[in-house]
Amino acid sequence: MKARHDQHFLIDKNAIGRIADTEDVKGKVVLEIGPGNGALTRALLDRGATVHAVELDGMLCDELAERFSTEITEGRLTVTHGDATKCPLPPFEMVVSNLPYSASSKITFRLLDMGFKVAVLMYQQEFAERMAAPAGTKDCGRLSIMVQTYATVQRCFTLPPGCFSPKPQVHSMVVKIVPRPPIFWVNDKKRYAAVVLALFTHRRKTVRNCLRGSSGILDREWTERVIAALPEEILKSRPEELYLEDFATIANFE
Ligand code: SAH
Questions:
Q1: Quick one: which H or E segment has residue 177?
Q2: Which amino acid residue places its CA nearest to atom 1 of ligand 1?
Q3: Do 104 and 127 meet the contact criterion of CB atoms below 8 Å apart?
């Protein structure tokens, strides 16, 4: 069953506690995307966080406003009705969220763009595994490369469907994301993103053929010059075989 707005609410007390305890939130300003009925919100507030919650479902926002009226009055909680993929987000230093699965990718990239100290995020397990897959392994893809260029990703623990109501069809995984500067210098972030996109559009092809077939994503003339200059070692590899460093080597070419 496909739940409306991806709504799978946490009902397992132990699981809620583990998520809230993954990082010390006391005295911190925490963004929570998709608070739902506020189970995780409550745990974060109990641990001394100030929470800015952003929820897409207006009915849930009304319920949260009622349930947490004291905390809202005290200024410890704000509830914003909006779509976290695009609405203005209040300032925050940390993120702790059980994310809506269909918007996982968009929200993750948006958060990385905005910057934060640490995020504890729950995803579908398969999505989380792909995000954490190191460059050079067969599970790595655009998501892993883009996230790991700008952050470290650490798997924390998995949660079975029974922790939620209604039960999702898949396991979930909590990961910790800590932004850091890229390990390999990135000259132009836009071009870097375009190179990673072009390479993973056809993951079974070689780097040479991915670059050749990248019109619409990368500049033709630039691509030809890159192909002429890159070592054969890189050109004949498949994108999933590249080291993280190789993506920067390609993108930094002038
Ligand atoms: N955090 C709660 C609910 C998780 S379910 C818990 O763990 O129990 C995901 C929540 O995200 C739902 O409340 C859903 O309404 C909300 N949601 C879905 N898409 C959203 C979006 N684009 N922006 C903000 N919230 C969204």
A1: strand 172-179
A2: 35
A3: yes
Instruction: Give the closest residue to 89 by CA, choosing from 64, 54, 117, 37.
Output: 54
What amino acid occupies position 74? E
Q: Say how many domains are in the chain.
A: 2
Cα within 13 Å of Cα(147), Cβ side: 29
Q: Which of 40, 45, 55 to mutate to test the pocket of ligand 1 (most atoms within 8 A of CB)?
A: 55
pLDDT in tens, 118-172: 999 999 999 999 999 999 999 999 999 999 999 999 999 999 999 999 999 999 9
Ligand 1, residues at Cβ distance < 6 Å: 5-10, 33-36, 39-40, 54-57, 60, 83-85, 98, 100, 103
**Final residue before a domain boundary, out of 141, 161, 179:** 179
The answer to whether the predicted template modeling score (pTM) of the entire model surpasses 0.90 is yes
